[in-house]
């Protein structure tokens, strides 16, 4: 039986990225995937007639341009198109829009508050400063502060140097920023509820935290530090839906001679004499390899796919306590036409934006209260987009696909699994909220796919359907991610590596964990590095 | 539920004078200025420049950010905000001022008009409502953004006094530089200040936008025989460099917008130490500025008189002719001065370089028929404005 150089478990964007870089270094790599399609949560699916659904992740910004360029993803069919602004619909019938043009954005803000319009520049500069600090560390391994290896010391010195370079005042600001809540952070700049609400969404998307929870200011950054073509903070759609990202990376993998095997779910990672030697598939087959790389989240990797006896005791407990909580769901809708939003002027650019139907910080917090009570938000925070306004490939001409990210939505209802009635009611909550602002919306619905965290867990395999493979809180970031002492992509067993979003720098379609893990693996194997370094930004 | 409202205006705004400016425009070259359309040039920026130095140039400065500051604590608030002592600026006087953040770094510069006892207008390039409100905590003061409520024209050049006199403005002969007065214009109040961005004889007119077009027409009628011309920003920019005035985003960045460390400047570093008054009560940035005064500044703004005739745009400045390791700074604004026949520039260098009389070297890049050339040009650091004619300060001004 053949022994591969490496098996990568899970063909999400990080698994594919990892496998692609290993294959490029000349390794004999196979990437195995439990589903009959690739991409994991980075996927476009044909679930209704001629519609393609970005049925998990739906927008693209964080994907590292260094990886995009290095893997030549444009040659494998990827195109990311920026989209415009965002809008908050208000209960009063008014709306607050954000626009690309800085002067238009200014005037719109000044309509609510001239103070806030002027404060926005300071807010942008302060937030961008934090972005610049952290962006530089995305495409590199987090140094271990307890290590005396030259590589770690050098990287620690670099971070320390960058930090000191900020100057006293900005160092204080940075430390505060990393620990404060997004609500407190916004209070330092703005006075208008709807403007704060609009900006606060990015602080909680994908987390089981509320806008007043400490640490959410950092999450804001996680959504801002991406870019489309160098426009930092800008977001885009992948042409053909999010699955186009996975397809392109898979193209790069196969072009480098890597192998891709779908419908090959891993039952167990096989460990012999303290070393990972392969995987046993659900169908009973075994695949042998010198190393095994898990792109699954940390809980699924260790609690489900490994024998507890092979793992260190403290490590195991830490994994059990790793925070990876279901907090968001998805409603994906095929539409017979474009719904109208009477509050918006006809032909408004805001139709191309991401839409939100919550207009106060209190409603944001109440939405979180429902989650804590063990149920979905009855007045949820939606991040709704209609990518078919710019993408001609995802629905027939004149028809549309609508993607609704929904927060909050728990993995379990009152500690038990969802019933199908509850799932329908969850979908109705979302549809009703949109219909409040679009009278013709309901009549245009042809098909809707409702996805709770439970559905995402069952189908994709991500524990609790958490989009980041684990909360982005300080105790789970940088050298703490996923587990202190194991933050450099190496598992607690020889020959076992981790490359999923549970690892530094975390989730979103960034591909950085997959790439960083490949760099570490190639270092261990004493192979030439194929993974690009950060473009850097002076 | 539906509430009809005017959607936010998506295109560029038009100033109250736009219908007249647009009529005179022959080149269709516009840029954006705080959301408004503003002309780069109207027919020929070189000729427009000479209107400033030889006749009367009219520039529409309505988009300039303006605030009305009133209330019992207006003076105390301004003294807290800016670095200079505003108590010395009496009603009817205008003061150039800078304001700083807590680190003593310049947020912006501007002019403060003491319109009447306790009533001020502050004009600046950037918009600062949030900052002013924060600085106003504890003061009984009203700050109103009034950019749209005031139409403003700069009327600059040697014949500007004659033009305004001809228009029937009384008492202009007694108005000194940095003075202002209120006059009647066709039954409405107009404020006239002897201020400008050109270092020449010149005035600025401020009034209700309703009367804007009447004012324009009266002005151009009165100036018909005095070489009056409307101008765009390019001409004004050249005059600005000759005057040695600072432009935000050229000579400094607003401190609250800088992302990288060390990209902001203190008043001392901009040659504005004379605006910092430690004898008055607390003001923003005072402690940091006192410390900087004790310990010395990192940067020094310089005015350069450069050999040769090739404008030193974006040039590095070196201490010595040979050896590029000795880079000490860079040019921020540069021009060939038609009126001085000098190759002039404003730049920033590391202290203690940059003392008046020092010699430095400027690396000038210039293109000739596709090919790029490089020359090291010797430059002297000067401390006076390049252009500062006696007529600028003459009171009463001559008729010219």
Would you give the CATH topology of the domain at 18-62 and 150-243 in chain B? Gyrase A, domain 2
Strand order of the largest sheet of chain B: 10-11-12-9-3-13
Q: Count of DSSP helices of chain B?
A: 8
Oligomer: heterodimer
Count of helix runs of chain A? 17
Binned, the helix content of chain B reads 10-25%
The structural domain count of chain A equals 3
The largest inter-chain interface, given as chain pair and residues per side, is: A-B, 37 and 29 residues
The main β sheet of chain A shows up as:
7 strands, mixed
Top-tier CATH class of the domain at 18-62 and 150-243 in chain B: Alpha Beta
- How does the overall form of chain A come out from the CA principal axes? globular
CATH second-level architecture of the largest domain in chain A: 3-Layer(bba) Sandwich
Task: Give an overview in words.
The complex is a heterodimer of chains A (538) and B (400). Chain A has 538 residues and is of the alpha/beta class. Chain A has 17 helices and 20 strands. Chain A has helices at residues 13-24, 65-70, 102-112, 114-135, 150-164, 168-179, 182-187, 193-204, 216-224, 243-255, 298-304, 313-321, 361-372, 420-435, 441-444, 453-460, 512-524; strands at 3-9, 29-32, 45-48, 51-53, 80-82, 86-89, 95-98, 227-228, 231-232, 236-238, 259-261, 266-272, 275-281, 286-294, 328-335, 354-356, 381-385, 400-407, 445-451, 496-498. In chain A, α1 (13-24) packs parallel to α10 (243-255), α3 (102-112) packs across α4 (114-135) and α8 crosses α9 (216-224). In chain B, the strands form four sheets. Chain B has a six-stranded mixed beta sheet. Chain B has a six-stranded antiparallel beta barrel with strand order 14-17-16-15-18-19. A five-stranded antiparallel beta sheet of chain B has the order 5-6-7-4-8, with helices on one face. The radius of gyration of chain B is 22 Å and the shape is globular. Chain B has helices at residues 18-24, 45-54, 74-81, 129-135, 160-166, 212-223, 233-243, 286-295; strands spanning 29-33, 36-41, 56-60, 65-70, 94-100, 106-116, 119-124, 142-145, 151-156, 180-185, 188-193, 202-207, 228-230, 299-306, 316-318, 327-337, 342-350, 359-368, 371-382. The model of chain B has no long low-confidence stretch (mean pLDDT 96). Chain B has 400 residues and is of the alpha+beta class. Chain B has eight helices and 19 strands. The interface between A and B is medium-sized, with 37 and 29 residues.
């Amino acid at each position: 039986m053949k022994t591969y150089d490496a098996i990568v478990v899970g063909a999400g964007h990080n698994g594919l990225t990892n496998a692609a870089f290993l294959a490029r270094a000349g390794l004999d790599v196979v990437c195995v995937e439990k589903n009959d399609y690739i991409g994991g949560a980075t996927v476009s699916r044909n679930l209704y007639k001629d519609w393609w659904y970005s049925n998990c992740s739906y927008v693209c910004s964080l994907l590292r341009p260094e990886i995009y360029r290095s893997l030549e993803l444009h040659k494998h069919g990827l195109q990311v198109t920026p989209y415009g602004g965002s809008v908050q619909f208000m209960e009063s019938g008014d709306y607050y829009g954000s626009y690309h043009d800085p002067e238009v954005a200014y005037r719109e803000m000044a309509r609510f508050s001239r103070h806030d319009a002027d404060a926005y520049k300071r807010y942008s500069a302060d937030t961008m400063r934090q972005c610049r600090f952290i962006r530089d560390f995305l495409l590199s391994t987090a140094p271990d502060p307890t290590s005396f290896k030259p590589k770690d010391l050098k990287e620690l010195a670099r971070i320390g140097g960058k930090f000191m370079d900020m100057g006293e005042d900005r160092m204080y600001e940075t430390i505060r920023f990393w620990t404060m809540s997004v609500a407190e952070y916004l209070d330092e700049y703005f006075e208008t509820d709807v403007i704060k609400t609009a900006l606060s969404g990015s602080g909680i998307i994908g987390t089981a935290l509320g806008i007043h929870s400490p640490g959410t200011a950092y999450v804001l950054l996680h959504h801002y530090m991406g870019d489309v073509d160098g426009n930092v903070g800008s977001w885009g759609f992948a042409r053909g839906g999010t699955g186009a990202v996975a397809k392109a990376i898979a193209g790069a993998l196969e072009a480098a001679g890597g192998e891709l095997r779908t419908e090959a779910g891993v039952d167990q990672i096989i460990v012999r004499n303290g070393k990972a030697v392969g995987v046993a598939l659900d169908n009973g087959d075994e695949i042998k390899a010198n190393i095994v790389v898990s792109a699954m989240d940390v809980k699924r990797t260790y609690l489900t796919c490994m024998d507890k006896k092979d793992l260190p005791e403290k490590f195991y407990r830490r994994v059990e306590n790793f925070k990876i909580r279901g907090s968001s769901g998805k409603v994906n809708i095929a539409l017979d036409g474009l719904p109208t939003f009477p509050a918006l002027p006809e032909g408004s650019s805001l139709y191309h934006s991401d839409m939100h139907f919550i207009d106060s910080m209190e409603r944001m917090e109440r939405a979180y209260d429902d989650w804590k009570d063990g149920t979905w938000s009855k007045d949820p925070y939606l991040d709704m987009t209609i990518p078919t306004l710019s993408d001609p490939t995802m629905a027939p001409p004149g028809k549309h696909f609508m993607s609704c990210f929904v927060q909050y939505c728990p993995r379990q209802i009152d500690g038990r699994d969802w019933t199908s009635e509850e799932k329908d009611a969850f979908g109705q909550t979302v549809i009703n909220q949109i219909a409040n602002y679009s009278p013709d919306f309901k009549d245009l619905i042809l098909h809707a796919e409702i996805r709770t965290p439970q559905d995402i867990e069952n189908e994709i395999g991500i524990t609790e359907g958490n989009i980041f493979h684990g909360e982005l809180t300080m105790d789970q970031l940088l050298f703490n991610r996923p587990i202190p002492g194991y933050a450099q992509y190496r598992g607690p067993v020889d020959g076992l590596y981790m490359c999923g979003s549970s690892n530094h720098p975390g989730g979103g379609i960034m591909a950085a964990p997959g790439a960083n893990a490949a760099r570490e693996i190639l270092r261990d194997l004493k192979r030439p590095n194929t993974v690009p370094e950060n473009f850097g930004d002076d | 539920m539906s509430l009809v409202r005017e959607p936010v205006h998506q295109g560029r705004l038009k100033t109250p004078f736009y219908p007249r400016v647009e009529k005179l425009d022959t080149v269709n070259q516009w840029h954006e200025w705080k959301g408004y359309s503003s002309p780069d040039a109207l027919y020929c920026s070189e000729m427009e420049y000479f209107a400033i130095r030889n006749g009367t140039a009219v520039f529409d400065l309505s988009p300039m950010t303006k605030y009305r500051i009133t209330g019992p604590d207006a003076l105390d608030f301004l003294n807290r905000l800016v670095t200079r002592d505003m108590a010395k600026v009496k009603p009817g006087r205008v003061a150039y001022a800078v304001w700083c953040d807590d680190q003593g770094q310049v947020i912006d510069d501007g002019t403060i008009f003491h319109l009447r006892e306790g009533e001020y207008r502050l004009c600046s390039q950037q918009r600062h409502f949030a900052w002013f409100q924060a600085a106003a905590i504890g003061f009984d003061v009203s700050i109103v953004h009034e950019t749209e409520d005031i139409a403003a024209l700069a009327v600059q050049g040697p014949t500007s006094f004659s033009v305004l006199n001809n228009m029937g403005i009384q008492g202009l002969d007694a108005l000194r530089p940095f003075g202002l007065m209120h006059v009647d214009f066709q039954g409405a109040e107009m404020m006239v200040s002897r201020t400008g961005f050109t270092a020449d004889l010149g005035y600025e007119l401020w009034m209700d936008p309703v009367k804007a077009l009447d004012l324009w027409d009266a002005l151009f009628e009165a100036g018909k025989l005095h070489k009056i011309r409307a101008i765009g920003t390019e001409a004004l920019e050249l005059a600005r460099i000759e005057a040695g005035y600072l432009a935000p985003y050229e000579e400094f960045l607003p401190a609250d917008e800088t992302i990288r460390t060390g990209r902001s400047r203190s008043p001392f570093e901009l040659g504005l130490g004379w605006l910092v008054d430690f004898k008055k009560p607390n003001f923003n940035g005072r402690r940091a500025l006192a410390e900087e005064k004790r310990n010395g500044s990192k940067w020094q703004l310089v005015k350069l008189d450069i050999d040769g005739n090739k404008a030193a745009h974006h040039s590095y400045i070196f201490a010595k002719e040979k050896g590029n390791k000795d880079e000490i700074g860079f040019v921020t604004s540069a021009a060939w001065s038609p009126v001085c026949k000098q190759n002039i520039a404003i730049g920033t260098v590391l202290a203690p370089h940059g003392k008046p009389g020092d010699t430095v070297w400027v690396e000038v890049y210039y293109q000739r028929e596709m090919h790029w050339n490089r020359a090291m040009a010797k430059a002297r650091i000067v401390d006076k404005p390049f252009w500062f004619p006696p007529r600028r300060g003459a009171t009463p001004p001559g008729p010219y």
